[in-house]
Amino acid sequence: MEQKLFTELRSLYVTRRESPNEIRIRIRMRDLINPEALRHAVDTTMQRYPYFCVRLRKRDGQYIFEENHLPVVLTHSLHGVPLNSQASNGHMIAFCWQDNWIVLDVFHGMTDGTGAYEVVRTLLYYYCSERYNVKLNDTGIRLVGNEIPEEEWIDPVVSRNDLPAPRRNEQMSDALNLIALAGLKEDHRHTVYSIAISESEFMKFNLDNDGSPGTMVSLLLSRAIAKLYPEAKDIIRITLCVNQRNALHAPLAHQSLVGGAFLEYKDAMRDWPLERQATAYRGMVFAQTQEENVLMGVASIRGINGLILSKESDQERLGMAGYINALAARVVTATVSYVGKANYREAEQYIRDFRLWTSSAADGLTVEISAVNGRFTLDFLQSFQSPVIVNAFLEELEENGIVYDLQDVSELELANIELPWTE
């Protein structure tokens, strides 16, 4: 089956060697990896996801995904292999392992955290069943032999001709720029700080303060930044990622379907108590995630992809995508993303740590929130090494009585994606 790229286009054309548009999921298991069981689990899992077993091709000026029957690669390393390369058998997805770590690498334009979680859910079911010789509950897990509904395949954006017109607002004001204010223009060491918080305790904190995981992390980050730069003139504006599937009535779609809600830490809010601030942030999210508003965002993204596609050459498309990215970076201070509780079911008992990494957003900072096996992990993905923002955020946690564990600091290493303009 051949798939013309559309929703994937912007992600494709913003990919660079220094910033591959990729999702890397790192799972630290309880025990050392059994490579034979993992190889079998990868092969079985990929039978269930044929729309991820594809090769990128260009035909008549248009990129397509065509079927790729070569095995999806599994390597003994934590570095992985470049995607869309000979080393990956031409696939845009690959796996690797070392010691007790399992790693999934996948092109972010092909799917998002929601789609990647489905693959991991299937993989862990097959791997843990064989590794521990147990019969796990398979309720809600996509398995080989299940019928693959058409709704998993179809791009719900390209086929929609009834989307509302995007709202024509006045140009959004520039947001506070962390890299400029912190003097980090020469700091190019991509770094991830991983922070663990008890799920039950953080959820209680949210309930006590009218928050939710995504809005509360966004608010605490906003407060931390405001205390660091109290004299800054530009507004602190956090983008909280929004899953567009509900608004599109496409819950099974595998594509990357992520919009955003803008959370502005307005001057008038700064003296409010935390609970009132959290209520305000939840109100902003509620308003912006109403179906009509989400679909306006979808229409805007559809228009951007159509604009990119209207350009004839890759160089023109790269220029257009880069220009749009630069505009987006100017209006956002940082990005926060929460896929939701992973719910890997009975396999979670075998998981020690879980990390979700992506390229840091164009503004320089993305916080990825994962909820696995009784704890939240906050991965601060930075295009710089300095801990200035992380330290301010940790102080905010301490001031609010939230117990945390700074687990580690790592180089933000992502597998490259080989494309004509990255080679």
Describe it for me?
With 423 residues, the chain is of the alpha+beta class. The chain is 33% helix and 24% strand. The chain has twelve helices and 15 strands. The strands form three sheets. It has a seven-stranded mixed sheet. Strand 3 and strand 4 form a beta hairpin. Helix 2 packs across helix 3, helix 7 crosses helix 12 and helix 10 packs antiparallel against helix 11. The radius of gyration is 21 Å and the shape is globular. The mean pLDDT is 93.
Summarize the structure.
The chain is α+β, with helices and mostly antiparallel strands and 423 residues long.
Question: What topology emerges from the helices and strands here?
Answer:
Elements lengths: L2 E2 L4 H5 L8 E8 L5 H14 L5 E6 L2 E6 L6 E3 L16 E6 L2 E7 L5 H19 L18 H4 L24 H4 L9 E8 H10 L4 H16 L7 E8 L1 H4 L9 E8 L8 H15 L2 H20 L3 H17 L3 E8 L9 E8 L6 E8 L2 E8 L5 H12 L4 E8 L12
Parallel strand pairs: 5-6, 9-11, 11-13
Antiparallel strand pairs: 1-4, 2-7, 2-12, 3-4, 6-7, 8-14, 8-15, 9-10, 13-14
Helix pairs in contact: 2-3, 7-12, 10-11
